[in-house]
Amino acid sequence: MAGAEQQTNEHPGLDSARARVRMRVPSVAERVAEELRYQLAEGFLVPGAKLTEATVAEDLGVSRNTVREAFAELASERLLIRQPNRGVYVATLEPGDIHDVYTVRRAIEVSSIRAGGSPERIAAVRAAVEEGKRAAAANDNDGLGSANQHFHGAIVALAESARLNAIMKQVLAEMRLYFHKATVDANFYSDWLEENEKICSALEHGDLEKAGDLLLAYLNRSEQQQASVHGQ
Fold first, then answer.
1. At what angle do helices 28-41 and 162-182 cross, to 10 degrees?
2. Is 129 exposed, middle or buried (0-12, 13-18, 19+ CB in 10 A)?
3. Counting Cβ atoms within 10 Å, is residue 225 exposed (0-12), middle (13-18) or buried (19+)?
4. What percent of the chain has pLDDT over 90?
5. DSSP 63
6. Rounded to whole angstroms, how far apart are CA atoms 43 and 118?
7. Range in 7-11, 22-26, 191-195 the model is least confident about
8. What is the rounded distance in angstroms from the CA atom of residue 126 to the CA atom of residue 204?
9. What does pTM read for this prediction?
10. Contact 158, 121 (CB under 8 A)
11. Which UniProt keywords apply (predicted)?
């Protein structure tokens, strides 16, 4: 017993530090920013839309100071723009940003799919494809857009990295801002649904190189399309 007591008290400072270690809990402002980021990625907030602290605070049941902090976080990510004496607006992204965003997408999406994933993570990719098929059958273009977002999010989630998932959430929000202009064409998302099926099928069959090659070609074509739509 004495030995055990001596061992326990050997590093009192370390024990005290361990006792203070806690899981980091996101602040309320971070949770508000996450909700707004989600609304951007799902297409609920459109480019140029004005956001007010009072309205968002009332909708989410938080203080205006909290919303102000969330706005600042999203402005640093270039998802919102604060215009002096006018207010806060959803960003309208510039054509020059397109290549940068797709460079990030190629880096994290292609590497994630080439590494494969657990059966549960692969099933989530398949679920997003099937979600897209249901939306297409219902002629639900907005639903197709969300399913496409979920598909690419599920690909990055294969890596099971919280950091990559966080980066991808911002990227998906930016992409939806680009896609608002492209979706004047009602077939915009349905044209990619067949590609999603091929990529998912290769992933399910364990042909990870093929899945990666298909996804890389997909992203290259998508970038070219976006550059054309935005006059680049």
1. 40
2. buried
3. middle
4. 56
5. -
6. 29
7. 7-11
8. 8
9. 0.72
10. yes
11. DNA-binding, Transcription, Transcription regulation
How high does pLDDT run on average in the chain?
85
Kindly give the residue spans of alpha helices, DSSP state H, lying in 110-189: 111-114, 119-137, 141-157, 162-182
Kindly list the distances between the CA atom of residue 23 and the CA atoms of 53, 70, 104, 182, in Å, as whole numbers in the listed order: 30, 21, 29, 41
Domains of the chain by start residue, with CATH: 28-90 (1.10.10.10), 97-229 (1.20.120.530)
Distance from CA of residue 115 to its chain's centroid?
19
Is the predicted pLDDT of residue 77 greater than 80, yes or no? yes
Encoded tokens for 203: 């992933």
Summarised one tens digit per residue, pLDDT across range 194-226 is 999 999 999 999 999 999 999 999 999 988 887
Rounded (10°) angle between helices 97-105 and 162-182: 140
As a whole number of angstroms, the distance between CA 100 and CA 37 comes to 19
Read off the pLDDT band of 181 (50, 70, 90): low
Residue located via tokens 């004495």: 2
Q: Which two tokens stand for residue 88?
A: 């806060």
- Structure tokens, 16: 């005290």
Does 8 have pLDDT greater than 50?
Answer: no
One-letter amino acid for residue 82 of the chain: R
- Other C-beta atoms within 10 Å of 69: how many? 17
Within 8 A by CB and 6+ apart from 80, the residues are 36, 51, 71, 74, 88, 89, 90, 91
Can you tell me whether residue 231 is helix, strand or coil? coil
Label residue 23 by pLDDT band (50, 70, 90): low
Structure tokens at 165: 């998932």
